[in-house]
Automatic annotation (TrEMBL):
Keywords: Membrane, Transmembrane, Transmembrane helix
PROSITE patterns: GGDEF (PS50887)
InterPro entries for the chain: Diguanylate_Cyclase, GGDEF_dom, Nucleotide_cyclase, Rev_trsase/Diguanyl_cyclase
Coiled-coil positions: none
Taxonomic superkingdom: Bacteria
Protein name: Diguanylate cyclase (GGDEF)-like protein
Pfam (any one): MCP-like_PDC_1
Domain GGDEF span(s) in chain numbering: 398-527
Transmembrane segments: 25-47, 334-357
Residue ranges, annotated region (Disordered): 521-540
Signal peptide: none
A single GO molecular function term of this UniProt record: diguanylate cyclase activity
Amino acid sequence: MTSSTNTRPRAGDRGGSDPRSAGRWIGLVVTLVIVAIVAASLAAVLATSRANKTSAADETVARIGDRTADLVMAHLDVAAASLDQIDAVLTDAEIADRDDRLDRVLAAQLVAHDQLSGSFVGYPDGDFVFAYRDTDQLMLRRIDTTPTRRAIDHRLGSDLATDNTFVIETDYDPTTRPWYLGAAADVRSAWTEPYVFFRSGQPGVTLARARRVEGSVTAVTGVDISLAELRSFLDDLPIDDGAEAFLIAGTTIVAAPTGYDLDGDGDELPSVEVAGVTFDQLHELVRSDAPVDIGADGRLHLTDLPGANAPSWSVLIRTDDVGVVGALDQGARIALLMIAVAGICLLVATPWLTRWLRRPIEELRRMARIDELTEVTNRGTFLSDAEAALDDVRQHGGPFVVALVDVDDFKRVNDTFGHAIGDDVLRRIGEAIKANVRGNDLVGRLGGDELAIVIRGTGQAESDRILRRVRTAVVTACAEYGVDITIGASRLAGRTIDLAGLMIEADHELLVAKRQGGKGQVHWADPEAPDPTPLRLRLE
């Protein structure tokens, strides 16, 4: 064997400097560099994505928490609205008289507001007038202390007149109750701590307000509002299966998703420990005023209820390791696998991958705005959009109409055809309304079988045609179930009234129509009428 194979090639020799071999090496190096650059770039993007995952999740959960808090306050606002109606209808003299008109006013609150389980007036001398629900029956209890103490229950008919009367034994003294003591000590309306209602066994709360003459309490009016319906709000939140939301007051759970027992101990509700949250974790969450990690159990988020006169409650959301944006981790793993097998392709696919990773967040943001059943905006979004639309009208002028839509006898549909058909009817109604309003009009579901419409830029005549077209479309869409709707409408008409006032007027007109047997129609509020309250129209 010669040693030529071990000598270096001379100048001019081809030997190891074969261009094809060098090209292969250069190509390999370039390929490795490209792969390294692509891998490094995507790794940086994914690292940033991972670093920002918690921030993105917190932002989304915070938005969901805010919407949930708005829904809870909308539910509780019924209590304040009911007390406002009682104050508007009954004078101090009428309260003091304690006659049949007082009975009918209290009972009418339960007819007007399904959320209420009771309305009442307590007096400093121990007298007590209390309208309440007993299953599907309206009852009225009167406790008189003079000339001798007696307590009588009255069963009320559909016209709110007394059907039957029962003498009962009770030592109930309203002046010793927390709602009376709280209202008497506060110039504002006072919320009680949440508790378990004796009759229904469901969580609830009382809002009470003192009436004073020359500084002295002459009576305390109040309403009991059930919190059981809030369970459906928490069940329907757009969060992953690994996340849950609760409504809490201090360390007490007020409302929880389906599957949690809120029977508590006697008339007390359970603590947050039932939800797997320790007191120390909750205290850290309150102190930090920011989301808190709780290890393998996930992350806690807290949102207080809005409003100066809101109860001191909060929405507590617990997300697991994956959380609301869990799909980002799955996408990251897929992306890393793609880098390993085709770095250059990943470089080209980076824009698509980024868009794909954003989809879960965008979908959650959409779900936070849209009512899942009817596909119209949910209550919180609708109220926010309507406020913005009203502000725009105030700045630039033009007509503005608010209409409330209520399904007539919707309970009959559920009882006759079942809740699945009831849900289908609500879907059809949502589709019919959206298809028959204009592109710049707003449609939202306020809750249950009640929807709302905002019509901008057109007067009452054209708005009335739109609303009647909506009603006709709903009747046609739901003809097989005999469904009709009643619409109460109110217009701005150059006034300084706010959105809440317009909605109250529209709600008043809707209730007037129903109480006067005028279901299946469009009923308009008169902006020139002096303090038009349907409660007064119903009772006088």
